[in-house]
Amino acid sequence: MCIHSGIDDGISTDGEMGKMVVTILSAMAQAERQRILERTNEGRQEAMAKGVVFGRKRKIDRDAVLNMWQQGLGASHISKTMNIARSTVYKVINESN
Prior knowledge:
InterPro entries: Homeodomain-like_sf, Resolv_N, Resolvase-like_N_sf, Resolvase_HTH_dom. Pfam families: HTH_7 (PF02796), Resolvase (PF00239). Belongs to the site-specific recombinase resolvase family. It is a single chain. The radius of gyration is 27 Å and the shape is elongated. It is mainly alpha-helical. Helices cover about 65% and strands about 0% of the residues. It starts with 14 loop residues before the first helix and ends with a helix.
């Protein structure tokens, strides 16, 4: 088995020594990947402890949806008025109960 890259750096992957080099480089890459994941998770946990909120911002005004629902307006009317899906209206209503 011979692994080719776009750059000819003079390292042969043929033979037992070549396989050993590839194995060592692979192990180093896996270890580095694990370190990156650990540092990323630590940073994420620190940010969460400081109150940082992850994810995209909600574009739905849940209070407005609930107020319209309590006024007796239907889900279809609310969805058209708020420019959201009818299923989202029902989701907001169910989550409030």
